[in-house]
Amino acid sequence: MTTTLKKPQRSARKPKGDGHLRRGEILQAAERIFLAEGYQGATIRKIADEVGVSSTALYMHFRDKDEILLEICDRAIELLLKQNSEIAARPIDAVARVRLMLDAYMTFALENPNAYQLVFCGHSGIVSEDKQAATEALGDRCYAVWVGTVREIAAIGRLRTGTADSAAQSMWAACHGLVALLLTKPTFHWAPTAELRVVMLDGLLYGLVTD
Amino acid sequence: MTTTLKKPQRSARKPKGDGHLRRGEILQAAERIFLAEGYQGATIRKIADEVGVSSTALYMHFRDKDEILLEICDRAIELLLKQNSEIAARPIDAVARVRLMLDAYMTFALENPNAYQLVFCGHSGIVSEDKQAATEALGDRCYAVWVGTVREIAAIGRLRTGTADSAAQSMWAACHGLVALLLTKPTFHWAPTAELRVVMLDGLLYGLVTD
DNA sequence: GGCGTTGGGTGATTGCCGTTTAGTAGCGAT
DNA sequence: ATCGCTACTAAACGGCAATCACCCAACGCC
To answer: Model confidence over A190-200: pLDDT tens digits?
Structure first.
């Protein structure tokens, strides 16, 4: 009589994940393993074990390993975009916004080291080049917010050298270089990170922006 | 009668490599494949095929795949060191030498893209962390030449901000960031490379060095 | 009730990969 | 002649991503 009799008593199998609920479980497990063990260390089998399903089950929800990774990267970039947009909306001097964005960018990279490297230090061959369309689109929106702020500086004639684009790209690249090296060469005898960040920001802004 | 009878008619095997001569052949093939196909694409079997020996033969000359890669990296860094030393020895202004070194550094990276990425964008996990001793020592010598030149600038009181170390590291990191992004994100809508390099160098030197 | 459909799941398999093992061809020294 | 050594090989091992052929519980429908 009771409808609860339907419960799968005999089944030792995990209950169904109700579609995209299971997808979320996989992403969560995959993110932890990817971030903890890197691309090579995070095997499909490990992720599947963590979720409690067979390795094959992951191919129900993702085309291949790269697609899982890319979805994790997307989430990271979305955070970056949100952060940039929030700063862009502040009612303060454009130069101050530029400095805040660069600083927040470096903080983001240092606080999400593996996600950052997966997105911005992507070794050729790790991800199949063409599947990255969605991720790249997100990155472009991120850059658009950034370059928009630099354009404001150019518009008020405070760019000391270069175009808005080349200045924006140089500043971004410089900050990227600092965090990328800090992350990939952690054993190098670096000056204190805080000092490096300040020197970088001061140098860039003094070098590229006039008052 | 003729001593040439000894020739290995029946043996389809490649003649012996006379010790370290074969080692050179392997490195040459490996370098091409590593640079063309990246770390994952360059398999032991492909390299061995290219040389014309079995995959096992490579283990006669190298402990494992990473050791081959590291030796290639060493050669690249040696070039960089030689280049830096040559500039350091020129009888010109220290600031001019700093600019030349940074510019040559970027040229080197763009002309040896894969070697550069293998050395300076090394994903954690690709190489086993501890075997890199020799390579890192070379890198340190490279850095020593670089920081020595920046110290000269600090010594004559022309450093606008930061210490010699933090300034040297910031400038290096900034240039690294530019070439690293140019190499890893070739599809991005970059400003002309030449302009980016000039903006970067001008910005850095104006921002960090006084006249 | 019976019953076909279907979506989430599986174990076995394929085809690479790096690396290891056991063994062999050639050659100089004894 | 034969030992020992160096350079090399074929075959195998374990692990990987990905694919295959299947399986079964739940649901709608009669």
So the answer is: 999 999 999 99
